[in-house]
Amino acid sequence: MYIPEKPLDTGRIAIEKARFLNGQTPSPEIIRDFILDSWERSRIYGIAPATSPEPERADEGEIRRRMQPLVPFIELFETVRESLDILLKHKNIPVTLIWVDVEGTVIKTDGESPLYQTSKRVSERDMGTNIAGTCITLNQSMVMTQKEFFQSYFHDSIYAAHPLRDAEKHVTGCCILEMHTSTYDPEVVRMFLLIGDLLNRQRIQHTHLHQVQERESVLLGILEHIPSGIMVLNTSEQITFINQQARKLFDLTRESVQNRYLQSIIRKGLIPGDLIRLEKEFLYREHVLTYGNQSKTFFVSSALIRNHEMAITGLLLAFSPAKNLTFLRPARESSVPSQIPLQDILKNTAYQKKIQNTLQDLGRSPWDILIAGERGLFKSEFARLIHTGSPRASGPLTIFDIAGHHSFEIRDLLWGEFKTNPENNTGQCLISRSNSGTLVLNHADQMDEDLQGDFYHLLQNRELPDHTKFNVRFICITGDDRAGRFIPELAAYFDKEKLLPDPVRKHASDLEIFTDNILQALSARFHLPGPEVSPAVRQIFSLYGWPGNLEEIRDVLATALLKHRPKILDENHLPGRLRKLKAPTFYKDLNAQKKIREITDALKTTGGNCKEAAKHMGVARSTFYEWLAKYKIPH
Asked: Model pTM?
């Protein structure tokens, strides 16, 4: 904040204006004061001013409307003005406080001022410079001196003005301190400008606080009417909020539950202190809760509440009775509602014959298996085929996706190391449920190093933390062509048996059969007639690299089939990324790509003249035309 050592000298402004209007050059020292005179610019630049009408006062209703943006500042100023009044009384300086809105209208005056009158614009009096307009226009603090002839005597005053800003830092007006003295006192001005700066800061804080309170009120209103029971706890496990559904579920009233500890209501089945300490969050986990004189099964969700510094300040719990929830399944990434059997996709292909023996060997093998490769290769379906062809086919097949779970939650789900209910043993964990069967771990490479180390020791010892032995075969699926994210011990363990499905681009000869098989399966599922595939589509499919492999082919065909329902599948039914393919762009032969660039550069150099382009490349014209036809280059 700038606090000047002395006010601007505006005593010669009227004289310099007259010199300027008579064609004389004004004094360079006074030019800045001319520029700051925002409401007198028409005279400064020599524009003939319009005839000023008789000034009109704003009516009382208009004054109230204009005062609304300034009311918070006026109220805040009353809380801090005592220090300024003490200083002014000590200095014996009479002052007037003037509040001006953004349009320059005097809204309120606190004290006597012969020049400023409520409801009139500051520019409606002929002052040498307009400090209110200057302060608002430049959005900065100003201090000026004024000496004018008014009502038969000279009036000496010093004015200090400070802009008033809202929460978005837009100027809403200014506050002017008129000191009835000709002696400039920097200490008084400094105090006033500091108070003005404090008003702006407090106004922003109050606005932000009000906005936070409004958002909190809206959020509490939403939580109050959510169909699930909601409880919000602080870090001391006290209930700070409970919605109407939770009160209904646990037969409580709002007054009887406020600030009570959760353990005094739910005596068994949930320990919120462990959830906060372990930073544990989960969705729809089954819990048997004991409250009152009864025990019921609930699906419980847990979410941590954090402040802006990411420190935990509380816990949100959601309760849904088990009878209200049906079968839960995670959202699938694919738009196709269910999976096409892998056997239907691979049938009658050379790839099926190649991998069939491998799957049979892996099925008979007693070792745990790693399936790695690119995305979109139905690796979970390969795991299912291995289980079906193994001696464990009569046992359970469990598929668990590690992605999106915390390490402690994976431990809890897999081998029951951190159970919420200490009375439960590890018999409910996934490994125990998969005994004598197969447990498939999808995205296994997303485990951190500590969890991988614990998992490796579990595989070596073949027993749970409570020393219960298990007989489970593990199939780990990763999104890489190698176990690069595994710790060395785990990578060496899975190096014994490994399945690396080939990407689609390595079996280009089977691409047409893949397409027909997927299209036939989709048509049967959606009860639609199977369309024919045009040669143009087959050519585009052969040129495209298919980074999403079989799943991408399935999604493209399913979208075209459901959206257009064509009798003949042509290129107009394909997504834009496929329609834009041009054959020359996808030559695998580097020499051919180099030749295409040379031909196109020669045509550009010669302006499309084939004869000159052939001469530029040093070949016969007939050879050049053969190249154009071979590489399908337009000319």
From this structure: 0.45
